[in-house]
Design brief:
heterodimer, A: globular, B: mainly beta, 7-stranded mixed sheet, globular
Chain lengths: ~120, ~120
Protein backbone atom coordinates (compact mmCIF):
# COMPACT_ATOMS: atom_id res chain seq x y z
CA UNK A 1 0.00 0.00 0.00
CA UNK A 2 1.20 3.52 -0.75
CA UNK A 3 1.65 5.57 2.38
CA UNK A 4 3.64 8.17 4.26
CA UNK A 5 4.62 7.97 7.92
CA UNK A 6 5.74 10.51 10.47
CA UNK A 7 6.96 8.43 13.41
CA UNK A 8 7.02 11.25 15.96
CA UNK A 9 3.87 12.92 17.30
CA UNK A 10 5.93 15.72 18.80
CA UNK A 11 9.48 17.03 18.56
CA UNK A 12 10.90 19.32 21.23
CA UNK A 13 13.89 21.51 20.44
CA UNK A 14 15.65 24.36 22.18
CA UNK A 15 15.85 27.62 20.28
CA UNK A 16 19.08 27.86 18.31
CA UNK A 17 19.55 24.10 18.11
CA UNK A 18 19.19 22.12 14.87
CA UNK A 19 15.88 20.39 14.29
CA UNK A 20 14.82 17.31 12.36
CA UNK A 21 11.27 16.18 11.63
CA UNK A 22 11.17 12.66 10.23
CA UNK A 23 9.19 11.29 7.30
CA UNK A 24 9.29 7.94 5.55
CA UNK A 25 7.28 6.86 2.55
CA UNK A 26 6.16 3.83 0.63
CA UNK A 27 5.17 4.38 -2.99
CA UNK A 28 5.50 2.58 -6.28
CA UNK A 29 7.62 4.38 -8.83
CA UNK A 30 9.40 7.67 -8.30
CA UNK A 31 8.07 9.63 -5.36
CA UNK A 32 6.94 13.24 -5.40
CA UNK A 33 7.39 14.44 -1.81
CA UNK A 34 6.21 17.60 -0.06
CA UNK A 35 6.45 19.31 3.31
CA UNK A 36 3.73 21.64 4.60
CA UNK A 37 3.46 23.60 7.85
CA UNK A 38 0.25 24.53 9.65
CA UNK A 39 0.05 27.25 12.27
CA UNK A 40 -2.89 27.27 14.73
CA UNK A 41 -6.24 28.00 13.10
CA UNK A 42 -4.61 28.41 9.69
CA UNK A 43 -4.40 26.50 6.45
CA UNK A 44 -1.34 24.60 5.29
CA UNK A 45 1.64 26.46 3.90
CA UNK A 46 3.93 24.84 1.33
CA UNK A 47 7.55 24.61 2.49
CA UNK A 48 9.38 22.55 -0.12
CA UNK A 49 9.19 19.59 -2.46
CA UNK A 50 11.29 16.89 -4.05
CA UNK A 51 10.52 15.86 -7.61
CA UNK A 52 13.87 14.90 -9.06
CA UNK A 53 17.49 16.02 -9.05
CA UNK A 54 19.57 17.06 -6.05
CA UNK A 55 18.73 15.05 -2.95
CA UNK A 56 19.02 18.14 -0.73
CA UNK A 57 16.08 20.45 -1.28
CA UNK A 58 15.99 23.98 0.12
CA UNK A 59 12.70 25.64 0.93
CA UNK A 60 11.04 28.53 2.71
CA UNK A 61 12.02 30.00 6.10
CA UNK A 62 15.45 28.31 6.12
CA UNK A 63 14.07 24.77 6.00
CA UNK A 64 15.61 22.02 3.92
CA UNK A 65 14.92 18.35 3.40
CA UNK A 66 17.05 15.43 2.35
CA UNK A 67 15.68 12.76 0.05
CA UNK A 68 17.17 9.33 0.75
CA UNK A 69 16.00 6.72 -1.71
CA UNK A 70 17.64 3.74 -0.01
CA UNK A 71 16.03 4.59 3.33
CA UNK A 72 12.80 5.85 1.68
CA UNK A 73 13.00 8.95 3.83
CA UNK A 74 12.48 12.68 3.37
CA UNK A 75 13.40 14.30 6.68
CA UNK A 76 12.84 18.01 7.24
CA UNK A 77 15.74 19.93 8.78
CA UNK A 78 16.73 23.39 9.92
CA UNK A 79 20.18 24.34 11.25
CA UNK A 80 18.92 26.71 13.94
CA UNK A 81 15.36 26.54 15.29
CA UNK A 82 13.27 29.58 16.14
CA UNK A 83 10.41 29.79 18.63
CA UNK A 84 8.26 30.95 15.70
CA UNK A 85 8.88 27.59 13.97
CA UNK A 86 6.57 25.97 16.53
CA UNK A 87 3.72 24.52 14.47
CA UNK A 88 2.28 21.32 13.01
CA UNK A 89 4.29 19.85 10.14
CA UNK A 90 2.91 17.49 7.52
CA UNK A 91 4.85 15.36 5.09
CA UNK A 92 2.94 14.38 1.96
CA UNK A 93 3.49 12.14 -1.03
CA UNK A 94 1.82 12.21 -4.41
CA UNK A 95 0.40 8.83 -5.36
CA UNK A 96 -1.35 7.66 -8.49
CA UNK A 97 -4.41 5.74 -7.41
CA UNK A 98 -7.74 5.01 -9.02
CA UNK A 99 -6.70 6.74 -12.21
CA UNK A 100 -5.63 10.05 -10.77
CA UNK A 101 -2.94 11.82 -8.75
CA UNK A 102 -3.70 12.29 -5.11
CA UNK A 103 -1.82 13.85 -2.20
CA UNK A 104 -1.52 11.62 0.86
CA UNK A 105 -0.54 13.31 4.12
CA UNK A 106 1.29 11.87 7.08
CA UNK A 107 -0.31 12.12 10.51
CA UNK A 108 1.63 15.27 11.32
CA UNK A 109 4.37 16.15 13.80
CA UNK A 110 4.01 18.93 16.29
CA UNK A 111 7.23 20.90 16.64
CA UNK A 112 7.73 22.79 19.89
CA UNK A 113 10.71 25.13 20.06
CA UNK A 114 11.48 26.31 23.58
CA UNK A 115 13.26 29.60 24.37
CA UNK B 1 -0.50 36.80 -5.56
CA UNK B 2 -0.27 33.33 -4.02
CA UNK B 3 -3.34 33.64 -1.86
CA UNK B 4 -6.36 31.43 -1.56
CA UNK B 5 -9.20 33.09 0.34
CA UNK B 6 -12.07 31.37 2.12
CA UNK B 7 -15.27 32.72 3.62
CA UNK B 8 -16.63 32.61 6.21
CA UNK B 9 -13.85 31.99 8.74
CA UNK B 10 -16.30 30.46 11.20
CA UNK B 11 -19.74 28.96 10.69
CA UNK B 12 -22.18 27.52 13.17
CA UNK B 13 -25.20 25.77 11.71
CA UNK B 14 -28.01 23.54 12.84
CA UNK B 15 -28.64 20.14 11.31
CA UNK B 16 -31.58 21.45 9.27
CA UNK B 17 -29.80 24.51 7.88
CA UNK B 18 -28.45 25.10 4.40
CA UNK B 19 -25.22 27.03 4.13
CA UNK B 20 -22.36 27.49 1.69
CA UNK B 21 -18.60 27.81 1.95
CA UNK B 22 -16.76 29.93 -0.58
CA UNK B 23 -13.21 29.74 -1.91
CA UNK B 24 -11.44 32.05 -4.33
CA UNK B 25 -8.03 32.15 -6.02
CA UNK B 26 -6.59 34.46 -8.67
CA UNK B 27 -3.40 32.58 -9.50
CA UNK B 28 -4.77 31.15 -12.73
CA UNK B 29 -4.78 27.66 -11.24
CA UNK B 30 -6.94 25.14 -13.08
CA UNK B 31 -7.28 22.60 -10.26
CA UNK B 32 -9.15 23.28 -7.02
CA UNK B 33 -9.69 21.04 -4.02
CA UNK B 34 -11.84 20.67 -0.91
CA UNK B 35 -10.35 18.98 2.15
CA UNK B 36 -11.81 18.18 5.56
CA UNK B 37 -9.54 18.33 8.58
CA UNK B 38 -10.40 17.14 12.06
CA UNK B 39 -8.45 18.44 15.05
CA UNK B 40 -4.83 17.24 15.16
CA UNK B 41 -5.37 15.09 12.07
CA UNK B 42 -4.13 15.43 8.48
CA UNK B 43 -6.41 16.86 5.80
CA UNK B 44 -8.65 14.38 3.99
CA UNK B 45 -9.43 14.95 0.34
CA UNK B 46 -13.13 15.41 -0.49
CA UNK B 47 -13.41 16.78 -4.03
CA UNK B 48 -11.20 17.84 -6.91
CA UNK B 49 -12.16 20.13 -9.77
CA UNK B 50 -10.09 20.31 -12.91
CA UNK B 51 -10.91 22.96 -15.52
CA UNK B 52 -14.17 23.69 -13.66
CA UNK B 53 -15.31 20.08 -13.91
CA UNK B 54 -15.64 17.70 -11.02
CA UNK B 55 -13.00 15.04 -11.54
CA UNK B 56 -12.72 13.38 -8.15
CA UNK B 57 -15.31 12.68 -5.45
CA UNK B 58 -13.83 10.71 -2.59
CA UNK B 59 -17.15 9.03 -1.75
CA UNK B 60 -18.35 12.09 0.12
CA UNK B 61 -21.97 12.01 1.44
CA UNK B 62 -24.47 13.87 -0.71
CA UNK B 63 -25.15 16.39 2.07
CA UNK B 64 -21.95 18.01 0.76
CA UNK B 65 -22.40 19.46 -2.73
CA UNK B 66 -19.50 21.15 -4.52
CA UNK B 67 -19.81 23.72 -7.26
CA UNK B 68 -17.25 25.48 -9.45
CA UNK B 69 -18.94 28.49 -11.12
CA UNK B 70 -15.73 29.60 -12.84
CA UNK B 71 -12.00 29.00 -12.79
CA UNK B 72 -11.46 31.28 -9.77
CA UNK B 73 -14.33 30.22 -7.52
CA UNK B 74 -15.19 27.06 -5.64
CA UNK B 75 -18.22 26.59 -3.42
CA UNK B 76 -19.24 23.86 -1.02
CA UNK B 77 -22.97 23.70 -0.33
CA UNK B 78 -23.98 22.16 2.97
CA UNK B 79 -27.37 20.69 3.84
CA UNK B 80 -28.63 18.48 6.64
CA UNK B 81 -25.21 18.04 8.19
CA UNK B 82 -24.45 15.93 11.23
CA UNK B 83 -22.49 16.95 14.33
CA UNK B 84 -19.63 14.70 13.22
CA UNK B 85 -19.23 16.93 10.16
CA UNK B 86 -17.84 19.63 12.43
CA UNK B 87 -14.29 20.27 11.23
CA UNK B 88 -11.97 22.70 9.48
CA UNK B 89 -12.76 22.79 5.77
CA UNK B 90 -9.80 23.70 3.63
CA UNK B 91 -9.76 24.81 0.04
CA UNK B 92 -6.62 24.45 -2.09
CA UNK B 93 -5.54 25.07 -5.65
CA UNK B 94 -2.71 24.02 -7.95
CA UNK B 95 -1.72 24.82 -11.50
CA UNK B 96 -2.91 21.55 -12.95
CA UNK B 97 -4.35 18.35 -11.51
CA UNK B 98 -2.47 16.07 -13.87
CA UNK B 99 1.01 17.35 -13.05
CA UNK B 100 1.96 15.43 -9.95
CA UNK B 101 4.83 17.74 -9.06
CA UNK B 102 2.72 20.88 -8.59
CA UNK B 103 2.36 22.03 -5.02
CA UNK B 104 -1.03 22.97 -3.65
CA UNK B 105 -1.78 26.35 -2.11
CA UNK B 106 -4.19 26.26 0.80
CA UNK B 107 -6.66 28.78 2.12
CA UNK B 108 -6.98 29.51 5.87
CA UNK B 109 -10.04 27.31 6.15
CA UNK B 110 -13.58 27.60 7.46
CA UNK B 111 -14.16 26.30 10.98
CA UNK B 112 -17.56 24.61 10.84
CA UNK B 113 -19.57 23.65 13.90
CA UNK B 114 -22.78 21.67 13.46
CA UNK B 115 -25.15 21.84 16.42
Amino acid sequence: AQSVAQPEDQVNVAEGNPLTVKCTYSVSGNPYLFWYVQYPNRGLQFLLKYITGDNLVKGSYGFEAEFNKSQTSFHLKKPSALVSDSALYFCAVRVFSGGYNKLIFGAGTRLAVHP
Amino acid sequence: DTEVTQTPKHLVMGMTNKKSLKCEQHMGHRAMYWYKQKAKKPPELMFVYSYEKLSINESVPSRFSPECPNSSLLNLHLHALQPEDSALYLCASSRYRERGGDEQYFGPGTRLTVT
